[in-house]
Amino acid sequence: MERVGTVAALRRLVPYLKPVRAGLIGSGAAVTAGMLSGLAIPLVLQWILDGPVAARDTGALPWPIVVVAALSALEALMFYLRRKLVAGPSTLVEARMRADLYAHLQRLPISFHDRWQSGQLLSRAISDLATLRRFIAFAGVFLVVNTITLVLGMVVLFSLSPALGLITLVCSLPLLLISTQFESKYAVLARRAQDQVGDLATVVEESVLGIRVLKAFGRGPQLAAKFLGQARRLRRTELGKFRVLSLLWGAIILLPELGIAAQLLIGSLGVADGTMTVGTLVAGITVAGFLRWPTDSIGWLLAEANQAATASTRYWEVRDAEVTITDPDRSRPLPADGVGAVRFEGVRFAHAGADHEVLSGVDLALRPGETVALVGPTGSGKSTLTMLVPRLADVTGGRVTVDGVDVRDLRLDDLRAVVAVAFEEPVLFSASVRENVALGSPGATDEEVREALRVAQAEDFVDRLPWGLDTRIGEEGLSLSGGQRQRLALARAVVGKPKVLVLDDPLSALDVHTEAEVERALRQVLSGVTALVVAHRPSTVRLADRVALLDGGRIVALGTHAELLATSAAYRAQLSTVEDERAEAAS
Amino acid sequence: MTAERDWRGVAAEDTEDVAAAVTMKLRARSRALLGSLLRPRFWPAMVVLLLVMLGNAAQLAGPLIVAAVIDVGIPNAVRGDGTVLAWCVVSYAVCSLASALLWMCFLRLSGRIGQDLVLDLRQRIFDHAQRLSVSFHETYTSGKVISRQSSDIDAFGDLLEVGIDDLLTSVLTVTGIAILLLTLDLELALVVLVTAIPLAFIARWFLRRSNEAYRGVSGRTATLIVHYVETMNGMRAVQAFRREGRNKSIMDGLNSRVRSSARDSLSVVAVFTMAVRMIGNLTMVAVLTIGALRVAGGSMELGVLTAFILYVRRYFEPLDDVAMFANSYSSAIAALEKISGLLEEKPDVPEPERPVPLPRRRDGGLEVEFAGTEFRYRPDTPVVLPELDLAIPAGQTVALVGPTGAGKSTIAKLVARFYDPTEGEVRLAGVDLRAVSDVDLRAAVVMVTQENFLFSGSVADNIALGKPGASRAEIEAAARAVGADEFIRALPDGYDTDVRKRGGRLSAGQRQVVAFARAFLADPAVLVLDEATSSLDLPTERIVQRALESVLADRTALIIAHRLSTVLIADRVLVVDQGRIAEDGAPETLIGKGRGPFADLHSAWQDSLA
């Protein structure tokens, strides 16, 4: 990956910072005001001690003490304002960036999500954005304020005595050089650490999601060893960061101190010569001392800026990913009297970057209201074909039409309103049953949801759940059996009364009894809609009016189950069971 | 924005309320964890302390040297004697060098200690989560384990990185100055030290509020993470069902809740730092007023007052750092509360303290026996298996059939010791499973379910999970045995093809065959198949079926399947109904009876194949 400069990476935050600039500037002003009143307090104190107190003049005391008290209160107030003013903007930027990332991820195609581990996407939404928030709230503000302080301090020093100014400057220049060097080294390490954190999250996720497999094979220790290895690598990277950081700190402490030592020497000689006054020397050293914190903080601030730049780069890496499946520039409406006719015309499909096609010229027409079963060997592209209808993937050649309109000419919302799908593994979210069923139609009434549940033969068991439709299911809620999950997925598919249904073998993972229940549900679900059903089993095929056999990226046979059994050897090989073979062998 | 209640629905664990007594217990628990982490690193930590003290001393020497230059060095130099000046400049340079070097050593050593602590904690969490039983993971979701390992570890790491050096420096400074003030002037010193009382109250308020705020942030972030991860993992459904809009409003709601908690926590810090600074500054004003009057009255020297005021300012400055430390400390403690909660969970199926070795494996596998075995998932749920007595001789292939919820999977899980029986025993070759070491048990018993989870890595890696260190030839032989060789070779990189996230590159059937190859490579004495053939297509199932017949020959096998074809290769069929064995016999015998549970099921299957 090409390394983007820190400044360039941070500059990409500008669109988010602009709307909240008032708060950020206010916070910077509060820092400055606090610093100035903090600086003024000792001056006034000095004046009181040298003046009225030394003169034992109690009558002149009240007013100066009021001034000190006022400055003291002002300083404390500025401490409050600096944080208070930045609290809103920094958290707002974080929330907005997260919302935009989330929205973008929802638009990115499935092919993107297949490539990216959710651990990596999560670390961008949580830890990277937290890094940016911290940067904006603290380091960013101080970076600006301290730089200004440094420049002003140098101007004061030079006007006091060019010689003293020059010494401080000469000591600061190598610091600048070291900092730049450090920046590039540190950025590489920071980036590596953040990636390693993401990888570690992936192993943790797998260790928990695959716990049954790990337990069944007793392979926990192997994965633990892998985890430990990765955690150690992360530790090494972090220690590398400390190494670089300690060198920088050494330089940051040493160089200004050596500058003061040189000032002492030159200044004292100057005083001895009579070319400089003691007052100037003391003032010079005082100003140099005042510049210590702004100089010291540069290392820390640069480190933060680097972390923030890395976080920004990682964030934009995802935001810059291209949304390849979009609404057309000029969309066409579906015909008002659409009946749900689906056609595949010379459809080709290849994965991005792959040199062979999964589908190489599929022609298939589904008549309105008809159920077509799609049969084919493992890996023949059945699931891919189903993804093309709701445009979860786009064809690389040919076209898919619904009621005569190319799906790519329809608005995605329009298309996906008429095409509903159910997947091989039903996806349930940690939300209420109602929310899971009315997934895409949050406006659906309870009656509509219930009707869908009835069609999918799921109403009875839902009513038996402790809180009915309000019961939370999914990972964080009540767990359901495979048959129950599958029926909910079917209910979800019919809730908006779609014209076209695409089902990726909804019966595959069920036992006989549950399969019978879901099959009954399916029969109802399929009536009156055009449906494409991926099937592995004769029982599923029997639900279909016609069967299409997909092999080698094309439809090689099309007809009723009985016709194909009679005419196609490939079909027989695909759908006959061990028992059938035994029977054949016996006869 | 959407209220959480609207979409999340209701679950039992929502009614959690943390009582005060519980909070105390949580605190004690997380402090104990912190102690156990720090104890082995006591001496390195002492070295760090020493480095900080020396570094501070070197830095504090600077102003004294400058004073010496002005008071002695310059006047001498004016008189023509530069020795003092030269010595001063050289010692200033040496002090700077020493302070820089000490600081570098400190950073590297404390960084190393911190990273070691983090590594130690990471490993403890990981190992413990792996030791915990499957039943635990069914209720404690993966998202929670992930946040223990990510955001909670981060909070702990922040404490180590941000806090310790500041805290050490601050404590040293404050103590030193307090002693100095007491020796300078008792009355004024008491004015300064009495501020400890309001400071203590403010600190208490701050710790409580910032702890609350932190809990809010982390709890709300956890909910956000669950929603986010589920959206990413269910993206197909999200897009196909136009869920994006609804998800966006849910996310906006979660996001703004997290934001308001984060803002609260920043505000608490803002108020606290202001209060500390205000108290410090007002104390200084009071010292100035009282001091000025006393100086005017002649009961105090001007020099003492000057020194006092300078020191008072430095006395209050580090308290800010203490506050920041307290803040990251309370975040870290809240995180440690949750981590220690996870670490405190006891495994339901503990390792035996004195394991009994299994007898050497004979050719035909090992005998499995249920003796008066009773099982229920939780004390408050009904009994799933009431007193099961069953003996499976070594080498026998047994098929379990029966309706969903009859207890077939429970029997399988008991054999693989995912659970322990609530009454009675499950024995392997005559040994109670609770007395068998995990290593022996996992080598002897392997279970394949329809949950064919693949780990990131290549196809070969996933098969090799069955036998770590297996050669490529062994892996390929296992794949050939289950008929997976052909499709694996057709993948772009063959056996080295990356299976991608959760095996997404392969179809469900292909993942299942890989899971089979994995089990065959493991070559266990007892093989348990729980619906393991259900997602195969027919041609693949035929191949697996043929392979099964030879693979099952020399081992004990327990098969749960709803496909007739799979059941028929068994030596013995058990029809399970409501946790009891309703019928037991060879499949041909049971079918031959004409009537009976298995004969009925058999005829239903025959119909479904037509």
From TrEMBL, chain A:
What Pfam families does the annotation carry? ABC_membrane, ABC_tran
Give the membrane topology.
Multi-pass membrane protein
Q: Secreted as a keyword? A: no
Every ABC transporter domain range? 342-577
Q: Where are the transmembrane segments?
A: 20-49, 61-81, 135-157, 163-182, 242-266
Q: Does the keyword rRNA-binding apply?
A: no
- Record-annotated ABC transmembrane type-1 domain positions: 25-307
Arranged from A to Z, the UniProt key words for this protein are:
ATP-binding, Cell membrane, Membrane, Nucleotide-binding, Transmembrane, Transmembrane helix, Transport
Q: Which SMART domains match?
A: AAA
Q: What is this protein called?
A: ATP-binding cassette subfamily B protein
* SUPFAM superfamilies hit by this protein: ABC transporter transmembrane region, P-loop containing nucleoside triphosphate hydrolases
What Gene Ontology terms describe where this protein resides (cellular component)? plasma membrane
Q: Which GO terms describe its molecular function?
A: ABC-type transporter activity; ATP binding; ATP hydrolysis activity; ATPase-coupled lipid transmembrane transporter activity
Family named by the database record = Belongs to the ABC transporter superfamily. Lipid exporter (TC 3.A.1.106) family.
Origin species, per record, is: Actinokineospora auranticolor
Q: Where found?
A: Cell membrane
From TrEMBL, chain B:
InterPro entries documented for this protein: AAA+_ATPase, ABC1_TM_dom, ABC1_TM_sf, ABC_transporter-like_ATP-bd, ABC_transporter-like_CS, P-loop_NTPase, Type_1_exporter
Q: Does the keyword Isomerase apply?
A: no
The protein's UniProt keywords, in alphabetical order, are: ATP-binding, Cell membrane, Membrane, Nucleotide-binding, Transmembrane, Transmembrane helix, Transport
Q: Which parts of the sequence belong to the ABC transmembrane type-1 domain?
A: 47-331
Question: Where does it mainly reside?
Answer: membrane
Domain ABC transporter residues, every copy: 368-603
Top-level division of the source organism's lineage: Bacteria
Any idea which GO molecular function terms this record carries? Answer: ABC-type oligopeptide transporter activity; ATP binding; ATP hydrolysis activity
How does the entry describe its membrane topology?
A: Multi-pass membrane protein
State the compartments where it is located: Cell membrane
- Which chain regions cross the lipid bilayer? 47-72, 84-107, 167-184, 190-207, 266-287
Task: Work out whether the entry's keyword set contains DNA damage.
Answer: no
Task: Family membership, please give it.
Answer: Belongs to the ABC transporter superfamily. Lipid exporter (TC 3.A.1.106) family.
What is the protein's name according to its record? ABC-type multidrug transport system fused ATPase/permease subunit
Source organism per entry reads Actinokineospora auranticolor
The uppermost taxa in this organism's lineage are: Bacteria, Bacillati, Actinomycetota, Actinomycetes, Pseudonocardiales
